[in-house]
Amino acid sequence: MNRRSGRLATGHPWSAFIQSSTLRLALLYMLMFLVSVSLLLGFIYWSTAGYMSRQADATIETEIEGLAEQYRSRGLEGLASVMRERVARNPSGESLYLFASADYRALAGNLDRWPNAEPDEQGWITFPLRRAADASGARSTAGESEPGHLGRARVFALRGGLHLLVGRDIRELEEVRSLVLGAIAWGLALTAGLAALGGLTMSWRTAKRIESINETSREIMRGDLSQRVPTRGSGDDFDQLAENLNAMLERIQALMSGVREVSDNVAHDLKTPLARLRSRLEALHRALDAKEAEAVIVAGELHELSHGALNEADRLLSMFDAVLRIARIESGAQQLRRQEIDVSRVLHDVFELYEPVAEDRGLTLHFGVEGTLRANVDPELLFQAFGNVVENAIKYTPLGGQIMLAAQHDAHGIHVLVKDTGPGVPEADRERVFGRFHRLEASRSTPGNGLGLSLVAAIMAMHGGSTELEENQPTGLVVRLILPD
Asked: Read out DSSP for 49-85?
């Protein structure tokens, strides 16, 4: 993968462009366009030159019918006489006649010899024609012709081995056909050129935009997470793709920053309890080696040291259990056990649980929930979230402080409020305190692991709600938990 990325990064842009799918797609569209234009021009050719050719054949058929009528009524001499009359009336006309003997010798008409051409099944022939006027300017030669100068006729066998040819000079038709074919050729050439130019231009522009995405991806793979895909502000598909990729990159960068911060905080917060645990175990080891001390004293020290070590181990286990619980909630591995309940009853249970704890710390916990607040929620997870917020308020509110547990309902859902008169949270840190193991510097000396609000935010998000921090006047913090109806 790295070799592939390096090759693409250092290869010539034209090489990547030639191998790109955008060029192949452009060539395919160009081919389809050429086929479409060819069909259109072919229809135009059939509608013009083809129509004129059919008209010429229809004119010849009409003349044949007239001559056939004369032949039936006046015989061979009458047929020859009519042909001479027509040639005499219009010696330089487009009509061609030839009445020939059994050995194809010219007897009458405006052709001096029989064409050297094989007729088709219906007796039609197309042959070279060269005007070779006699004294009256009335005869033509069926032989070598000027380029594009052809005659088209239909031949018949008459009684006595005689032969008859009736046709027309189709020089004008051939000229029109040549002009149409030339126009079609130029049209196809121009179409191919414009299609190639347009296809290559669009492909190159598309390839450049894709390459900008690839270049950004390569920079990110090298470790620069601040790189973003450039946009042009056009609002097209590529801009929408770039915006979505940039939003994804923002999220990834935030998660990576969160991971780094969590790692730092875990290292900071675990160092102290692990050090205390080690010191207690070391003291326990020394106490076991103190053979000269009295048994009662040793037993007392052992009890105290083992109790302290167990407390530290319990704290570490609680910390990791909270991390795993948050991970399960955020990943969706833990399913909600929703029930239609009265949220005010859950709040009352939280109040009853923590009111004695608040009194022991010299604080006053008030309950300000009235009425029924119905919602479809997981009562156990909701109890844990409300309890964590109240416990945090008790932990950080100074002696003699006030804590209010309240709830209200509006168009946005159920709002659960926990107000305290503690030091509060600076506005700059109100988003960061929801990160795992994040603790304000002023609170690092107090018990805790910085996972309480992270767990609260995860539970509320799992319910489709949100968690907000606000300033409590004149001092303190308001934690607002919003549950949708």
From this structure: HHHHHHHHHHHHHHHHHHHHHHHHHHHHHHHHHHHHH
Strand pairing category for 140-141 and 130-131? antiparallel
Q: What phi, psi does 470 have (nearest 5°)?
A: -135, 160
Asked if the peptide bond before residue 474 counts as cis, ω within 30 degrees of 0, the response is yes
Amino acid at site 285 = H
The mean-pLDDT minimum among 36-45, 325-334, 369-378 falls in 325-334
Taken in order 86, 90, 95, 99, the sign of the CA dihedral is positive
For residues 435 and 465, what is the distance between their CA atoms, to the nearest angstrom? 17
- Structure token digits, residue 242: 């770039």
In angstroms, how far is the first alpha carbon of the chain from the final one? 49
Q: Strands (DSSP E) along 8-142, which ranges? A: 95-100, 106-109, 124-128, 130-131, 140-141
Nearest-angstrom CA–CA distance, 136 and 11: 79
Strands (E), 428-476: 466-471
SS3 427: helix
The pLDDT tens digits of the residues spanning 405-428 come to: 999 888 778 899 999 988 877 776
H or E, element range at 404: strand 402-410
* 75-113: pLDDT as tens digits: 878 878 888 888 887 776 788 888 888 888 888 888 888
Side-chain-side CA neighbours of residue 211 (13 Å): 19
d(CA 246, CA 252): 10
Tell how many helices (H) and how many strands (E) occur in the chain: 9, 14
Nearest to 115, CA basis, from 166, 160, 75: 166
Is the pTM higher than 0.85? The answer reads no
What domains can you pick out in the chain, each with its CATH number? Answer: 1-227 (no CATH), 261-331 (1.10.287), 339-483 (3.30.565.10)
Q: Find, among 360, 326, 335, the residue nearest to 436 by Cα.
A: 326
> What is the share, in percent, of the chain residues with pLDDT greater than 90?
8
Q: Which tens digits make up the pLDDT trace of 344-394?
A: 999 999 999 999 999 999 999 999 887 788 888 888 888 888 888 898 889
- Residues 363 and 422: their CA atoms lie apart, in Å, by 11
Mean pLDDT for 468-478 is: 85
Place of tokens 């109790």: 307
Q: In whole angstroms, give the CA distance from residue 158 to residue 102.
A: 9
Instruction: With CA atoms as reference, report the closest residue to 336 among 298, 284, 268, 382.
Output: 382
CA angle 183, 188, 193 (to 5 degrees): 125
CA distance 165 to 322: 107
Angle at 85 between CA 135 and CA 106, to 5 degrees: 60
